[in-house]
Design a protein that fits this description.
The complex is a heterodimer. By secondary structure, chain A is mostly helical. Helix content of chain A is about 45%, strand content about 0%. Chain A contains nine helices and no strands. Chain A is globular and about 55 Å long. In chain B, helix 7 crosses helix 11. Chain B is globular. The chains are: A mainly alpha, B mainly alpha.
């Protein structure tokens, strides 16, 4: 085998492998994806108000995550992360860390935003961050979920410098700015939480006085 | 049957005694559920509903004064054994893939002469308002107890529905970016204290699907799979699907296909 051929052959194999790996996982729905989208949208009660139905719209991040079953190739993931970084907005006064006591309350609230006719949330119901659904935080709350990593002693371990504060603010505002297709919601992007509310939750994670950082 | 029923009555009383505290505090739920299971032994409040469903099945009702005994749930007219475990299924007469609930409603309309609106008005129970559909589905489900889920989606229409169900399972939208997969796509995760299986594996889907319909302790009622999935869409913060909608049947087809081979243990009892 001559050298040129060996080089060519090697390169082909190297470039073919990732393409093959991607192809192996078919997009959900396969050739029926388009029909499925139509059918899904047609499956809701006709008396859902229009503004409820807008909740079915998908931005580019959602569409891409669906296509890759939340596991996009790194290059595409990076593109989505850039897109999401660009959405982050900050409080007018520029202060990214607020009151941990307010944050403690918001982190625990799991209600809000439920619609439909069977068991909707009453109008004006506080929407919280519902962080305990997925994360361990303060030691005294034992009813925590495990979809996300434990955030116990987050500030104690990661510090309270400006970079860490900004990271936590950004992460809560738009989780996909760091990890495309993560299971964590984008609280700021969807205006689920206001920038001010996010600063309180930042304090809950970072402030040395917060129960997150006490034994 | 009578012995089982007696146990159930005792169980129901124990259950009522517990129920108050349960809803109040999530963190005690796991413990208390273990206690109920013990107290109930092999009884389940759903057994009462099963008996009611058996009566409704045989009773002549509706404008046509007919029973449901000629209803074809996919195994032939009146054949109930294993029918639930083999649904959803493609039906030639309607040219549709139907789940147990859509087929049952179809029978109540065609055999008994009810309108679809009449039949589905009370598709799930509320305190003081019982649901015939819940009772009938509990009865039909129990006729598959001990049998393997057998819904491999081999008919092209079934295969298509299963694929569409898979699409919906991964589809993210809404103000929390949710999809079914967020909550049900990984092993061994919990949301608060509720265990969430991985519904994309045979083991996980089987563990879930084998126990439906199920008596839900926190709700004090039996829930059908339609009720379960419509509530999961509520949790996803989406608008409300129509009862018997294709999207729900598609998800069921996907889940039952994945669960195929698992032995049914229904009616179940859940948080």
């Amino acid at each position: 085998m001559n050298f040129k051929f060996a080089l060519f052959f090697g390169l082909t194999v190297a470039s073919a492998a990732p393409a093959f790996a991607q192809k192996a996982v078919e997009a959900p729905g396969g050739k029926h994806a388009k029909d499925a989208e139509q059918m899904f949208r047609a499956s809701f009660r006709a008396d859902n108000p229009k503004y409820w139905m807008t909740r079915l719209e998908q931005d580019e991040t959602m569409k891409t995550c669906l296509q890759y079953r939340d596991n996009p190739p790194r290059k595409i993931g990076e593109k989505l992360e850039k897109l999401n970084v660009a959405t982050i907005r900050y409080p007018v006064d520029g202060k990214l860390i607020g009151d941990w006591k307010e944050g403690e309350k918001l982190a625990a609230v799991g209600t809000g935003g439920h619609i439909g006719f069977i068991q909707p949330d009453p109008a004006g119901r506080v929407r919280g961050g519902n962080c305990y659904a997925c994360h361990e935080l303060a030691k005294k709350e034992i009813a925590y979920g495990t979809i996300g990593p434990s955030l116990r002693e987050f500030g104690k371990i990661r510090g309270k410098d400006d970079d860490t504060i900004k990271y936590v603010y950004d992460k809560i505002y738009n989780s996909n700015a760091f990890t495309a297709c993560t299971n964590m919601p984008r609280f700021g992007l969807h205006s689920w939480l206001t920038p001010e509310q996010i600063t309180h939750i930042v304090a809950f994670l970072i402030d040395p006085e917060s129960p997150v950082n006490k034994d | 049957m009578i012995r089982r029923l007696m146990k159930t009555l005792v169980g129901a009383a124990v259950l009522a005694a517990f129920a108050g505290g349960v809803v109040a505090q999530d963190s005690k739920v796991a413990d208390e559920l273990a206690k109920y299971r013990e107290a109930l032994a092999d009884g389940n409040p759903a057994d009462l509903l099963e008996v009611k469903g058996e009566g409704l099945w045989a009773e002549k009702r509706g404008p046509k004064n007919a029973s449901l005994e000629k209803c074809d749930l996919g195994q032939g007219p009146g054949k109930l054994e294993g029918a639930y475990a083999a649904l959803p299924k493609y039906f030639k007469d309607t040219n549709k893939v139907m789940d147990v609930e859509s087929r049952l409603v179809h029978c109540m309309v065609t055999l008994q002469g009810f309108t679809q609106a009449e039949v589905t008005k009370q598709w799930f129970s509320r305190p003081g308002k019982e649901s015939d559909i819940e009772a009938l589905v509990t009865f039909i489900g129990a006729k598959s107890n001990g049998m393997k889920i057998n819904a491999p989606a081999t008919h092209p229409e079934e295969a298509r529905m299963a694929k569409m169900g898979e699409y919906i399972f991964y589809r993210r939208s809404g103000p929390q970016d949710f999809s079914c997969s967020i909550c049900h796509g990984q092993e061994g995760k919990r949301i608060r204290l509720q265990e969430l299986g991985n519904l994309t594996t045979k083991e996980g889907a089987g563990f879930a699907m084998k126990t439906w319909p199920s008596y839900r302790v926190s709700q004090g009622a039996v829930w059908t799979m339609q009720r379960r999935l419509i509530d999961c869409m509520r949790q996803a913060r989406w608008p409300e699907p129509a009862y018997l909608a294709d999207s729900i049947v598609a998800l069921e087809t996907y889940l039952q296909k994945t669960a195929t081979g698992t032995v049914m243990e229904t009616p179940g009892i859940k948080r």
